[in-house]
Amino acid sequence: MYEFRLGVQDLAETSFAMSPLYELTFSLRPRTFPSWHPEHLSWVRETAAAYARLDTELLDVLNAPHGWIPDFLTPRPTGIVTEIADDLAVLRRTPPDVVRRDIVVAYRHVPVPPVLGGDPAAVLDRICRAYEAYWEACVEPYWARMRAVLEADLVHRARRLAFGGAAALFAELDDRVSWEPGLVRLVIRAGLAPERVVDVAGRGLVLVPCLFLRGALTMIDEDLPPLISYPARGRGAVWDDTVPAGPAALVGLVGARRAKLLVMLASPASTTDLARRLGVTPGAVSHHLTALRASGLLNRTREGRSVLYMRSPLGDQLVR
Fold first, then answer.
1. CA–CA dist 43, 37 (Å, integer)
2. What pTM, to 2 d.p., does this model score?
3. Looking at 88-205, which runs of residues are DSSP E strands?
4. What's the number of CA atoms in the CB half-sphere (13 Å) around residue 270?
């Protein structure tokens, strides 16, 4: 159990980030522990042939039998939204002694696999090369839809924090996370972790959504804000290409395509993601989004390089 003691300044400086490398690393879990992640098995099956051509001898053992991974595989994100090349560059700079230490810690209950037991600098190089190939073969083709879900989560959490404060944000973050009013603290329950109390002391807090987590995890550095990675909202639907039809009355009023967009935009989404799901060009979607926004039915916000659309309160009323 980790207990974070947060002051007013820490709450004011709570921020959000996302990391392609986190997704890359944790996306190996559904392959190693398929029963833990049934929502991702369609993607595992779809990419199985491509994955089999990779360095599976290495990739298959980056998760220890009890589910732990070496900490160096998830370096702290360097910005709100990072690129995989930047993340891999950070990973490549991991000192060899850290590589060796983190592998030993992850495998402390079982023998370290031979493929991870050699010279740590060589092991790190092999991991980075395997990760690059894994990204290109199995993750990059799906990254637009994955990123859209993550960006939608960031917008949702930021809105919860802005309109409802810390209690609203942490109330639905994850079952492992609890907020205790009046005590200004955050508790993460993690079965394998020792009990630890952390006085955040003005450093703030960083929250990172991840599609492939079952429960919240934490990263603590004495000089940096504590980081909590949590299961992203909507992760179960990331591989679902089903497009909902709008209610008949709504279709009659705004047309079938715009009715579908209004129903889909209960959660934030980008033009590119909407176009992929509808099977049309981004230009066609943009035309409808512009009309809906001009009518006051949509709001939009920028997250990184993406513009995300979401129903406005008026749009919610119309759909209802």
1. 11
2. 0.77
3. 177-180, 185-188, 196-199
4. 21
Give bridge partners of residue 18 from the DSSP assignment: 81
Residue whose token pair is 């492939």: 212
- pLDDT on residue 191: 52
241-319 topology per CATH:
Arc Repressor Mutant, subunit A (1.10.10)
pLDDT at 28: 96
C-alpha to C-alpha distance for 21 and 19, rounded to whole angstroms:
5
SS3 percent helix, strand, coil of the chain, rounded to 5, is 50, 15, 35
Closest CA to 67 of 116, 44, 34, 114: 34
Q: Residue 298 and residue 277: Cα distance in Å, rounded?
A: 18
Cα 141 from chain centroid? Answer: 17
CB 18 within 8 A of CB 77: yes
Name the residue ranges covered by the structural domains of the chain. Answer: 1-240, 241-319
- Which candidate, 246, 276, 243, places its Cα nearest to that of 258? 246
Neighbours of 283 (CB within 10 A): 9
Q: Is the pLDDT of residue 167 over 50?
A: yes
- What pLDDT is attached to residue 184? 47
Tokens of 237: 């639907």
* pLDDT value, residue 316: 86
Mean pLDDT, residues 165-171 taken together? 84
User: Mind listing the pLDDT tens digit for each residue in 177-201?
Assistant: 888 764 446 676 655 555 777 777 7
Helix axes 282-294, 271-278, angle to 10 degrees: 120
